[in-house]
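Hi C.,

You asked whether I'd gotten around to modeling the 204-residue construct. I have! Everything is below, sequence then structure, no commentary in between.
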Amino acid sequence: MENEKTEFWEANFVEKKEIWGFEPAKSTVIARDFFVEKSVKNILVPGFGYGRNAQVFREAGIDITGIEISKTAIEMARKHYGTEMTIHYGSVTEMPFDNKQYEGIFCYSLIHLLDQVDREKLIADCYNQLAENGYMIFIAISKKAPTYGKGQLISKDQYEIFDGVKMFFYDQESIKSEFKNVGLFEVTEVEENFPFYFIKCQKN
């Protein structure tokens, strides 16, 4: 799954470069405000991309560590945002990449690209790297998205929507099922290019 995501990333970067621009996603701004309110000083970002969602955290004084499987994306992040950030090269399925505990974890629009086994591992690995009383936020696509039910059915609520890209579509029930043991305390909806769930957990 991660290899397929890598091929998708690399193909799009080669042709389109910064395909989503440099403005942070709406969910990222909301997460930044939440982390600032909770005085979070450092966060881990699995699925770092090319850094468009990192700068708002840095500007708020939050230290960022990323994980990214695309070398092209990492090179672009270095080009546009400097070399000070730690970005681990590799798949999130290979976590952990360090033994640090983070006060916050932010995972944007990644978890739904994984199958059930890898989703469960990602959630557990993130929780294991979360400091006591720390917060983690996942942004996951909703079954309300127009692409739900389109393409080839892979498993329950998971579809290959086009070649090499498989998506699992969440609802409240599946969120509770997958996050119930990692301090899930709030789920809200956010409308961006797709309808997403904004999932908050706390370790205590």
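If it helps when you're writing up: The CA atoms of residues 103 and 134 lie 5 Å apart.

Thanks,
B.
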